[in-house]
What does this fold into?
Amino acid sequence: MSARTRLPLFLVSVAGLAALLGYGVAGLPAFGDYHGPYGLVLNHVVLAQRHTTNVVTAVVFDYRGFDTLGEELMLFGAVAATALILREAREEEARKILDPVHSEPVRLIGLAAVPVVVLLGLFVAAFGYLTPGGGFQGGTVVALGLLLVYLAAEHRAYRRLTPTAVVDVFEGGGAATFVGLALGSLAGGLAFQQNFLPLGRIGALTSGGSIPLLNWATAIEVAAAFLLLFGEFLEEVMVERR
Amino acid sequence: MDVLVPLPVALPLLAAAFLAAVGHFVPAWFGDLVAAVVSVAVTVIGVVLLTRTGRHDLVYWFGGWRPSHGVALGIAFDVDGAGAALAALAGLLTAASVAFSWRYFDETGPLLHVLLLVFLGAVEGFALSGDLFNLFVFLELMSVAAIALTGYGDEPAPLQGALNFGIVNGFGAFFLLFGIGLLYGRTGALNLAQMGRSLAGGRADGLVLVGFLLVTAGFLVKAGVVPFHFWLADAYAVAPAPVCVLYSGVMSDLGLHAVAKVYWPVFSGPLAPHTPALRAILVTLGVTSALVGSAMAFLQRDLKRMLAFVTIGQIGIGLVGIGLLTARSLGGETLYVVSDGLVRGSLLLVVGVLVRRLRSCDELEARGRGLRSSAILFAVGALAIAGLPPVGSFFGRALIVDGATGGYRWLPIVLTVVSILSGGALLRAVGRIYFGWGSEREPVLGEKPVSAEQDEPSHPPRGSLAVMLASAAALLVVGVGLAAWPGLPGKAVAAATRSLDRPAHAAEVLEGKPPPSPHASAPAPSETSIAAGLVSAAGAVGLALLALFGGLGALTRAPVLRLKALHSGIVTDYVAWLTAGVAALGAAFVFGLR
Amino acid sequence: MSYLPYALSVWLLVVGLYGVVTSRHLVHLVVCLTVAQSSTYVLLLAVGYRKHGTAPIFKGIPLGTKATDPVVQALVLTDVVVSVAVLALLLAVAVQVHVREGTLDPDEIPAVRG
It folds into this structure.
């Protein structure tokens, strides 16, 4: 089908689709007027049932923890998949491009920012079940903090900081811990992924039972996954091909 | 709650994570071993679960979150007969695939097996889940693993297949998620049974219809129903044969079955008054898909691409089974899909043997060079596809057709045509490859496609031919012999009858009330079906011989070439067709289901 | 006014689709896919909003305060991660296509066809 016939077919179809979607969306309750039972019930019971003040994190790691399991494995799978696709083609004789940053202020401020950002990420992850945040959010920020090394210095420094074999272990280990904890509950006679630790005082870092453990396993896995992804793409781009 | 239920998902995923973590430190065969052990374990667990679903579903609440006052707080797995059967099927096909490719892919390290295990875990989750968003998560996980498995091997063709797969399926998943958003806005729930209860009291207004459209379209893209099927042929053509086994036998079948899995608990309430119209729409879609798929299969020279189109045709028949909206046809669809999936998997492995020996899966190139010992496997499989009684999928097909109420008497004729085309294409290939019949040139089949199979390592192939043939034979024996299992059609129909009873099913999932035992039975296949099966098998043989000895010159006509040309390989075309298909289906729903 | 966020999500999906179908560059195409996906984020979050509701985090505020729906926020979190995974994968494929073929125009990549 040539581009000339494709466009009219598409324009007609998408107009129809937009009309359909509009028709569907018109049946929703007005914006701000939502009364669905799932969220209402959870908002009322989570604090008592799990002693976590951040209901969203409790939903992510406990009530709908199984979705999160799939999501963790998805990030993990995407890294494995990207590695498979990109590592295959890498010719070993290609010369690596040097890419130093010449501006001193950029280097200084950038490198000074690295520990700040990493610390911020760790904070967001650590308190994720008490205040806004969580393992995913924190892990991403930590990874970005380390990526700053590439931006502020050069990519070889970044590569040296994040050796693939080591990061691979963290990534697989984080995912395995997550699944392992879930299976652990099963082995202990509870349901799969059931919370099994004492719940602690509301507002304390030890509240939430096994939520903190899952939270940290996620943070580690997500940070490692992003570092691997950045590394794969940098490796692909920072190479001069013959 | 049955402790076995989460294992088919947890074991493969844990094994994948573990394998990735230790991958740098273990020998190459370790990955094969882990994958083999896990897939066999999953198969066994699947079969055990199947035996336990005879009287009631196995409902498992993750995290121990049982519903309170009819509101589901957590995620549930709702294992019924069909789900357990598909789960066992996935395990068996993965085990056969691992056995086939033992040490085939040595040089990539464990990554390939990691992805295979992730794929298996996702497929198991998709088969067993009872929560709509959970289905989306596993659908996407399946896609991520599958894209990589397709794109592995860095020649242009696999990458283009992977790209088309990723983009079209990506849009399918977005449509599904948009539908989930709409339905959540109305029902406030994600659990299928709870959503159904919430919708049952109301009528099918715009939101329900569009939600149904989007959710169904998402699954139909995965299943490869026309016009959402273009990506499927490209992906199968370029993925290595052991990977195609999983796509054909598992992924497409699961996508198709998900339509029924979601329709009955969620939508059968508000859409019940519109059953005749919905039936007409779905059956039309299924028949179109079956005809296009089988016709295109006949026009292929690349064997994997041919099998991709055969799959599309067979899935079309399955969609007819679902679309007829009766217990008997749904039971038939389950039986059909499982046995047919095994047969298609076996055929793909035989093609894999051909590739391994000849480095080509092109029908014309391979003329006369096939291994005679695999000819019998291919021929039996082809006859099974053609619908020869009393092979396993024949019973399923008979149930589908016999389950059709009045007004659909023409179905056996259409199905016979479809079977003749698909079976004929495969038998033609048998004749040409294994016996050297037919000529070496066949212009209507087009020029040789861009080289497709890249997985030949630069060192000599290591896998043993005997193992490869044995895995193909094992699948074929199970697929064909499924008919011998006593009372299987009756059990399939009984399970289907239970899933049609929405209020009882919802009470079972949300309150744990045991459901009534239906007294459903499956009558023996009618004479029409038996006759149709014999006619289609004979017709397939006849068509193959005609094609080989009479030539296909008559087919070089504009409509045929136009149909082939539509399958352009360009992803932007595919997305345009996707949009058109969803818009058309939506129009049919909105104007037909008022 | 009260249906505008929903209309926005429809618009995003439509624009994403248009971008993909008229695309002549694979990276542009993959990013348009992401735009289409963001339509689902907007829809889900808009559905869960409650007027005058605060975030569903009960530190320092009494239980029973009107709060927005936490479930959709968890769903969107999962959705974003899914989007990242698919995006990374497709970009990797696009990079490889460029290396092998020298082109990123979807119309010109030699294709398996017929």
The domain at 4-101 of chain C is CATH 1.10.287 (Helix Hairpins). The longest helix of chain C spans residues 70-101. Chain C touches chain A through 55 residues (CB under 8 Å).
